[in-house]
Automatic annotation (TrEMBL), chain A:
Keywords: Periplasm, Signal, Transport. It comes from Cytobacillus purgationiresistens. CDD domains: PBP2_PotD_PotF_like_2 (cd13663). It is found in: Periplasm. This is Spermidine/putrescine transport system substrate-binding protein. It comes from the Bacteria. The keyword Transport applies.
UniProtKB/TrEMBL annotation, chain B:
CDD domains: TM_PBP2. Its main location: membrane. This is Spermidine/putrescine transport system permease protein. It is a multi-pass membrane protein. It comes from Cytobacillus purgationiresistens. It comes from the Bacteria. InterPro entries: MetI-like, MetI-like_sf. It is found in: Cell membrane. Signal peptide: none annotated. Residues 57-259 form the ABC transmembrane type-1 domain. Keywords: Cell membrane, Membrane, Transmembrane, Transmembrane helix, Transport. The chain crosses the membrane at residues 12-33, 61-83, 90-114, 134-158, 197-218, 238-258. SUPFAM superfamilies: MetI-like (SSF161098). PANTHER family: INNER MEMBRANE ABC TRANSPORTER PERMEASE PROTEIN YDCU-RELATED (PTHR42929:SF1), INNER MEMBRANE ABC TRANSPORTER PERMEASE PROTEIN YDCU-RELATED-RELATED (PTHR42929).
Length: 357, 268
């Protein structure tokens, strides 16, 4: 017993000792609550130079952490015990965070650079008046294909995917809303359809696509398309851009019937310890020059009108990644359909995956 | 030292088992009675007995069976030959070393090897067979799983064979049994416990594989593990995920009972 107590005491002493050292080290490097900013973002989703520039200009230390899915990010913030000052969720995750009261309202007075954001990306359904979120990047869901391999298909219609010549040649991204979504779009239904009959109809149509599907994968889709593993892939414009940088012979298109328009947005979680610095950071990211620099590094489409002047003309005029207003009007943003409906989408998606060739 | 102080030393183990074995299982059971809105319900259990999940259960068992079967077919002769080699321990080590490498890394390596322009297809082309789709097929899924589980099957079988008293085999030979009869009547029955242990170690994890189903099978193979992952991470329907887990746990207990050792002292 004595030994056990002694062991326990030693463990405690060592733990407190370590805690003290960590604290000392943090203070020595300037990491104290007042002048640090913890940013929680997707992996490889910011130009690291911008972080150093921000640190230099403001004297605030930035701690950068990454996540790989909205769900993972949500869970971590919900569980508490974190002190993220900035997070970058997608639109449907923001609706959820709003519902769960995890966000701090953003004070627009502290964001003098806000007017640089293109008005068509403001005041959207998931966060009216941008009370809680400021757009970071945006994009679409579309078809990436290899023109040399698909004959005269151009994928201006989703139905081109069902062409028998594409047997075993299509990769899909592993997302229920994306896949069921283009099934709905191909039938001219809304992406946010909640009529179960229509959803089942879309799923049955997708079942007929099974012979053409090679695989349903996650982030590997980027690697697989770079290696020309398949001729066609349905994916997000951001990944398409990455692949196009590596392999110029491919083509990206958003079919006419409509598709998804997505946004990643900066928010301030309630867990923040430094809302002042968080506002400064958001405003800094909205600066046209910085936004342009970031867009050049990340390669996604920036919602910052001012930044477009600093970007390469070819990039800005690339209709594939900067579609005009007319096109974006025909695209839909995901709405939070509620847990029940989302579960129904996922059940259908699971059944679709189980449908054998 | 009296019994009393000895009991104190049990505290860490009891705590460990209570916190990390019993409590999680009870939590899984608890969550399985709640629907997505957090109301108490048996709906999840009803849902499990719909064709979708029954089909999924069936396919999980089928693939786990295939994986275990092929692993066994390869592992037994390998283990047998290993016991006959001169530097047994060295060979054994060489077989075990790959299992130290992270599963994910191995899976990614296989994406490269089995890809359309990968080494396997280059080889097939050089042989004059012509390129084939290997990645994202049932074949690649079973092959990679077998590759990953192989060391876990070889080890217990090797131990069983290694502990076999050679005089029993000599006796069998002396009494006029053919090599085949010796194997059937002496060697195999005496190593059965090793085989059972190996099958258990392979079958149970194979039942709930989920990373490989996406990376190697491209979600063309859906197992219960995949469904659990999806319910917890994407749908956030923890209740349904927990329900599937409850059935997996039940299945595992049944398998443990079926393949459990009856005689003691044979296994290492």
């Amino acid at each position: 017993m004595k030994q056990l107590v002694r062991a326990l005491v030693i463990v405690l002493v060592v733990s407190f000792g370590l805690l003290y050292i960590v604290n000392r080290l943090n203070t020595a490097q300037g990491y104290t609550g007042d002048n640090t900013l913890t940013v929680y973002n997707w992996g490889d989703y910011i130009d690291p130079d911008i972080i150093s520039q921000f640190e230099e200009e403001t004297g605030i230390k930035v701690i950068y952490e990454t996540f790989d899915s909205n769900e993972a990010m949500l869970t971590k913030i919900q569980q508490g015990g974190t002190s993220y000052d900035i997070a970058v969720p997608s639109e449907y995750a923001i609706e959820k965070m709003k519902e769960d009261d995890l966000l701090l309202p953003i004070d627009h007075e502290k964001l003098p650079n806000l007017p640089y954001i293109d008005s068509r990306f403001l005041d959207l359904s998931f966060d009216e008046k941008n009370e809680y979120s400021i757009p970071y990047f945006w994009g679409t869901v579309g078809v990436l294909y290899n023109p040399a391999e698909v004959g005269n298909l151009d994928f201006n219609k989703w139905d081109d995917l069902w062409d028998p010549s594409l047997k075993n040649d299509i990769l899909l991204v592993d997302g229920a809303r994306e896949v069921i979504g283009f099934g709905l779009n191909s039938l001219n239904y809304s992406l946010n359809e909640t009529n179960k009959d229509r959803l089942v109809e879309a799923k049955e149509k997708l079942d007929h696509l099974t012979p053409n599907i090679k695989a349903i994968v996650g982030d590997e889709i980027r690697l697989l398309m770079q290696n020309e593993e398949a001729a066609v892939a349905v994916l997000w414009s951001g990944i398409a851009q990455d692949v196009l940088w590596e392999n110029e012979s491919l083509e990206y298109v958003v079919p006419e019937e409509g598709s998804n328009l997505w946004f990643d947005n900066m928010v301030i979680p309630k867990t923040t310890k430094n809302p002042e610095a968080a506002h400064m950071f958001i405003n800094y990211m909205l600066d046209p020059e910085i936004a342009a620099q970031n867009a050049e590094y990340v390669g996604y489409s920036t919602p910052n009108k001012g930044a477009l002047n600093y970007l390469d003309e070819d990039t800005v005029n690339d209709e594939r990644f900067y579609p005009d207003e007319e096109t974006t009007e025909s695209l839909e943003v995901y709405e939070n359909l509620g847990k029940r409906m989302l579960a129904f989408y996922n059940d259908l998606f699971l059944q679709f995956k189980m449908h054998r060739k | 030292m009296g019994t009393k102080s000895r009991n104190y030393y049990l505290i860490p183990y009891v705590l460990w088992i209570a916190l990390f074995v019993v409590a999680p299982i009870l939590l899984v059971l608890y969550y399985s009675f709640f629907n997505i809105e957090g109301h108490f319900t048996l709906e999840n259990y009803k849902k499990f007995f719909t064709p979708v999940y029954l089909k999924m259960t069936f396919s999980s068992f089928w693939y786990a069976f295939l994986i275990t079967f092929f692993t066994f077919i390869i592992a037994y002769p390998t283990a047998y030959l290993l016991t006959k080699t001169k530097h047994k321990q060295l060979w054994l080590l060489l077989i075990i070393v790959p299992s130290w490498i992270n599963l994910l890394l191995k899976a990614y390596a296989f994406i490269g090897i089995f890809g359309t322009y990968g080494a396997a297809n280059k080889f097939l082309e050089a042989m004059g067979v012509g390129g084939k789709q290997i990645l994202f097929t049932d074949f690649s899924f079973v092959f990679v799983s077998v590759y990953i589980f192989l060391p876990f099957m070889i080890l217990p079988i090797f131990n069983a064979l290694n502990d076999l008293n050679p005089s029993l085999i000599d006796a069998s030979n002396d009494l006029g049994a053919s090599p085949l009869t010796t194997f059937k009547r002496v060697i195999f029955p005496l190593t059965l416990d090793g085989v059972k242990a190996g099958c258990q170690i392979v079958f149970i994890p194979a039942l709930s594989l989920f990373m490989l189903t996406r990376l190697i099978a491209g979600n063309r193979v859906i197992t219960l593990g995949t469904a659990i992952e999806q319910h917890f991470l994407v749908t956030q329907d923890w209740g349904m995920g927990a329900t599937i887990a409850v059935f997996l746990i039940i299945a595992m207990v049944i398998i443990m009972l079926l393949t459990g050792k009856r005689k003691s002292g044979m296994l290492r």
